[in-house]
Write a structure and sequence with these properties.
Elements (H helix, E strand, L loop, with lengths): L2 H23 L5 H6 L6 H24 L10 H25 L7 H6 L2 H35 L6 H16 L4 H29 L4 H9 L19 H17 L2 H7 L5 H36 L17 H8 L3 H34 L13 H26 L4 H12 L1 H12 L3 E3 L4 H22 L9 H15 L1 E3 L7
Antiparallel strand pairs: 1-2
Helix pairs in contact: 1-7, 1-8, 1-14, 3-6, 3-8, 3-12, 3-14, 4-10, 4-12, 6-7, 6-14, 6-15, 6-16, 7-15, 8-12, 8-14, 11-14, 13-14, 14-15, 16-19, 17-19, 18-19
Length: 502
């Protein structure tokens, strides 16, 4: 598929998104629509649209790519996914009811009521930093693909490609916000899910396999080992580590994250929100299994046809997350190439548009107080929101350009490693608030605890082999971070005389 064809398809794709944005935000672009979608989203649209938000381009490219990684990862990611599923259920049963009882717009308002002003600002700041970094990494992944296969052909610099991508996202989200995204993400998830199944079909066709034969080939290949029970101390792929990491990363990155919770809170009531979460969980597990199968089939195809893993243009090292686009664009026919492009674009932009809206919501509510009664009728409040939206777009641009200058490792691993450090303090704050009802904290000292915790966690991670008999951490590192934060909060805690009921 030529760069001109790819570019034409992207233009058509965004034309559709702009049309949706126009009709959803027409005469309805106020803060209530932007922040909460007027509190009337259909649970089945939210559930389906959340698939695109949760998966992103990272899942679309990096997860299949890591199946054949030299590290021998194979299907180990599915262990993490099973942990995710448990985490989603915990979020649905414990956190969602709390948020609905308190009728929150920003979920960090809970921390303000439970622990105080400084704790509240700290929690919101952690989210802003975490989500900006995480979403920038995700967008970076699709931008390097577009750069390599499209914009390099036209000699357009990487930074300009990033600006174009973020400008497109800003253009269709800045007015309607969440109300627009509920619809656009449903469409984008449809493209994503369809592309997974159709990609499997076309790869099987090119390998002269039917679906049942492909299943047997994947099962008997060197890529399908799923459960790892050997060497608990030194093996970071161990089942227990992956399950625990999956559970707590999900609680932190979903249940304590304004982005995905904002969509849930746009449902009419807690019953519909929980129905959405349970449905989403089932689809999430199945789709990830298919992504891993795509990865195995890609490596089988590459071996059969002599396709090499593309190398990073800067470091010269093989980049497994470029194998999928390499095969899709250069070795398959035009139809699977188009399908891959639509799936990749949908996966990444569904994540980024949602994150940009959540970042704007959090800053406007948590720092500018736009949900306060006294601020609702202030002049230029919508304009201020627009400038905030633009500001976060520019911030993501800076992060992506910076990350491009230093990155030399798998994006999927980097995202969850960063999450272990940035989301850990949120885990500690909410655990303290939910389970220690007889205590509160000396509020002014909370920021110091939340800054110190990631630093101590990093020290433990770097020296765990020496201190812990060779133990190697993976995603379960977030548990250590959360525990350190909890212990720190206990050290600055005091018994409260007031009865806490939330």
């Amino acid at each position: 598929m030529t760069p001109a064809t790819i570019l034409t398809l992207i233009v058509i794709y965004f034309g559709i998104l702009f049309a949706i944005a126009h009709f959803t935000s027409k005469n309805n672009n106020g803060n209530d629509a932007f922040f909460k979608a007027n509190k009337n989203s259909k649970w089945y649209l939210v559930a389906f649209g959340m698939i695109g938000t949760a998966l992103s381009g990272v899942t679309f490219i990096s997860v299949p790519g890591e199946v054949g990684s030299p590290n021998g990862e194979q299907f180990k990611y599915f262990q993490f996914v099973l942990g995710n599923a448990i985490g989603f259920i915990i979020v649905a049963k414990i956190l969602l009811p709390l948020y609905y009882r308190m009728n929150l717009t920003s979920i960090y308002s809970y921390i303000e009521q439970r622990l105080g002003f400084y704790s509240y600002k700290t929690a919101a700041s952690i989210f802003l930093i975490s989500r900006t970094i995480g979403s920038s990494f995700r967008l970076y992944l699709v931008v390097i693909v577009l750069q390599r296969f499209v914009f390099d052909y036209y000699q357009i610099p990487f930074a300009v490609t990033v600006i174009i991508s973020l400008a497109l996202i800003f253009a269709y989200t800045y007015r309607g916000g969440l109300k627009t995204i509920i619809i656009t993400d449903t469409l984008q998830t449809f493209f994503l899910v369809s592309s997974v199944f159709l990609t499997i079909y076309f790869i099987c066709q090119s390998l002269n396999l039917n679906v049942f034969q492909a299943f047997e080939v994947v099962k008997n290949s060197n890529y399908s080992k799923t459960f790892f029970f050997d060497d608990f101390l030194t093996n970071k792929f161990h089942f227990v580590k992956q399950i625990l990491g999956g559970i707590f990363v999900t609680i932190a990155m979903v249940g304590l994250d304004q982005d995905l919770m904002q969509k849930n809170l746009s449902c009419a009531n807690i019953g519909e929100a929980q129905k959405n979460m349970f449905t989403f969980t089932g689809i999430f597990v199945i789709i990830n299994l298919f992504f891993l199968s795509v990865g195995a089939l890609l490596y089988i195809y590459a071996t059969k046809n002599g396709v090499e893993i593309p190398k990073d243009l800067i470091t010269g090292k093989p980049r497994t997350d470029l194998l999928f686009p390499e095969i899709a664009f250069h070795h398959l026919s035009i139809v699977p190439s188009v399908i891959f492009l639509l799936g990749l674009t949908a996966a990444t932009f569904a994540t980024t548009d949602s994150a940009l809206t959540a970042l704007t919501t959090s800053f406007c509510v948590d720092f500018l107080g736009m949900d306060k009664t006294e601020n609702l009728d202030k002049p230029n409040i919508i304009r201020t929101r627009h400038f905030t939206h633009l500001g976060f777009s520019f911030l993501m641009f800076l992060v992506i350009v910076f990350f491009n200058s230093i990155n030399d490792s798998s994006v999927v691993g980097m995202i969850f490693r960063v999450a272990s450090y940035t989301y850990g303090p949120l885990l500690g704050l909410y655990c303290f608030g939910l389970f220690l009802k007889s205590k509160t904290v000396k509020d002014r000292y909370v920021p110091f605890v939340c800054v110190s915790s990631p630093a101590l966690t990093y020290f433990i991670s770097e020296h765990s082999k020496d201190f812990l008999m060779g133990y190697t951490f993976d995603n379960e590192l977030i548990i250590i971070n959360g525990l350190i934060t909890l212990v720190g909060l206990l050290l600055i805690s005091k018994t409260t005389k007031d009865k806490i009921s939330f």
